[in-house]
Description:
Elements: E1 12-16, H1 19-22, H2 35-40, H3 58-72, E2 76-80, H4 83-86, H5 96-111, E3 115-121, H6 127-131, H7 139-155, E4 161-166, H8 168-177, H9 193-211, E5 215-221, E6 225-227, H10 232-255, H11 278-284, E7 289-293, E8 298-301, E9 311-313, H12 330-343, E10 350-354, H13 366-384, E11 389-395, E12 414-416, E13 423-425, H14 427-441
Amino acid sequence: MPHRINLPQDFRWGVATAAYQIEGAVAEGGRGPSIWDTFCDRPGAVRDGHSGARACDHYHRYPEDIELMRGLGLDAYRFSIAWPRIRPTGRGPVNATGLDFYERLVDGLLDAGITPFPTLFHWDLPQALEDAGGWLNRDTAHRFAEYAAAVADRLGDRVPAWITLNEPFVHMVYGYALGIHAPGHALLLDALPVAHHQLLGHALAAGVLAERGAQVLIANNCTPVRSATTSAEDEAAADAYDALHNRLFNDPLLLGRYPDLAAYGVGPDLGGAVRDGDLALIAAAPLDGLGINYYNPTRIAAPTEPGLPFAEAPIDGVPRTHFGWPVVPDGLRELLVGLRERYGSALPPITITENGCSTDDLLDDTARIDYLAGHLDALAAASAQGVDVRGYFTWSLLDNFEWAEGYHQRFGLVHVDFESQKRTPKSSYAWYRELIAAHRNQIPA
């Protein structure tokens, strides 16, 4: 019997990918260099020297990938548009060849009965903008809005909704604070202005998208934060981490203010990045839905090293993915119910824009099926508790380039042989197809 879950009949089912992780063709069609091209060229930056230069060759093989999506019976496909394909230096003339590619992709999706659900920024900043300061530079927010307008002017008549940014927290921390991802800066708390400039870019882009009649979302990576013990020190550390990871990127959107980072010991502050009127602009920007990327909870203890007000503690006694991440499905319900309790009527409808796991390189990927089934049950439980959830995009359609891990982590419903580029659906692909069909055919309660 197919797995059955109790979610609204009009619930949206999809899969998600990102441009640099699947497209390849980094030097074709007038595309300019991105920070990830540069980062991958840095010795030791990416495991085994891998890069996304070829990835899944989706740039050339997208019709095959659309057929895989058609076979799943999807409602929607979340993909990202590569900023360097549209404006190779991040500013200036639009590269028509780049827009042509995404127009073919969008039209192919529509022909297959699949709604395109694009993300405008999934970490592949044009290198020329990084050379001018990247997201540490306020000007990047304005260049982002210009880019959003150029894409929407070409595709907006066929794209009903857009996601502005993907996981601004992760991009700030991994890219600018710790140097694990591109652009590879290790600024620690001096990276905080990146948070504000990304949110300002979101607000400016949301305005131009809404002017063109589109709905707007942002995809925030969120985690329920648990204190390692009931000690005052651990609980204070957990509060500090929650302020940095979750509230720093949700409070300005929904409440019009930042958490008091200095009070949590996270400060000093946002580096003077916030100007008069910025927070009002961010809070007033159209936000038709909140995208949530969820993978696992986070357990936090009092700091063990100077410089940070918290330390991550392991979550024991639970399964782990191939990536080593703890598998705690009920954390998704906990997170969503907590968001509703914190933000009340200010919380817009929620779409799960990413959820998935890396497993061993097996076509019979029962561990992934168990992971997805558990998280969808948790999503249904959140819905039953009154959370307005509209859709679910599993990560990912294809095995792909997994950032600093290169090709060592496989998240796909479809196996990719990166030498031959052969696609082979896994057991989870068939399971997801049957789940979607069963949900559509069930009689509403």
